[in-house]
């Protein structure tokens, strides 16, 4: 039924290659099927002005797609000319990752997660959240190793996966052909312990029932469990 031949509840192959770049405090290349995102974490001993002298740390994110990440070339976005989609996605990544951070334990410093989509085949924001957590984990490990942070500020894993209704069936981890044809699609962000951080759901040409919503949440929980296992293996 699925164009890829996958089972309804089957994830794409997930690989996470850590320390992918030399200079960032944390980095990885995450691949979810044909979608590939480079995630880096950069540490700065400062916070935004609204947090100065509060003792609280900050985690934020930026997101972008390379011009040939898709089938046809896109114009490169300047920061002051970012599309609404780009701005929405980077805010999503930032608040998702902050949900798994004890900002008091982090101390008055900022970690910026940059997510650059090298190749897109659906689920780029979900891959960015999942890979962004790995880059964040690696950066925090360095802070703890140096003694700059005493207690671990990461309270739980954070990962994200897409689910939707394609050809009348709830499916897990949509690739582009499925996403472009799905009557319902959404993004689910959960912690490693299974608590919800954010759900984005929309019907496009179809509606969905509360029972179908429950099925999609069940699929998302399964998918996030597999993503968290991949995160654990990557940072072990």
From TrEMBL:
GO terms for molecular function: 3'-5'-RNA exonuclease activity; tRNA binding; tRNA nucleotidyltransferase activity. Keywords: Nucleotidyltransferase, RNA-binding, rRNA processing, Transferase, tRNA processing, tRNA-binding. Pfam families: RNase_PH, RNase_PH_C. Residues 10-139, 158-222 form the Exoribonuclease phosphorolytic domain. It catalyses: tRNA(n+1) + phosphate = tRNA(n) + a ribonucleoside 5'-diphosphate. CDD domains: RNase_PH_bact (cd11362). InterPro entries: ExoRNase_PH_dom1, ExoRNase_PH_dom2, ExoRNase_PH_dom2_sf, PNPase/RNase_PH_dom_sf, Ribosomal_Su5_D2-typ_SF, RNase_PH, RNase_PH_bac-type, RNase_PH_CS. One of its GO terms (biological process) is tRNA processing. It comes from the Bacteria. Phosphate binds at residues 85, 123-125. Its EC number is 2.7.7.56. The keyword tRNA-binding applies. Homohexameric ring arranged as a trimer of dimers. PANTHER family: EXOSOME COMPLEX COMPONENT (PTHR11953), EXOSOME COMPLEX COMPONENT RRP41 (PTHR11953:SF0). Phosphorolytic 3'-5' exoribonuclease that plays an important role in tRNA 3'-end maturation. Removes nucleotide residues following the 3'-CCA terminus of tRNAs; can also add nucleotides to the ends of RNA molecules by using nucleoside diphosphates as substrates, but this may not be physiologically important. Probably plays a role in initiation of 16S rRNA degradation (leading to ribosome degradation) during starvation. Belongs to the RNase PH family. This is Ribonuclease PH. It comes from Psychromarinibacter sediminicola.
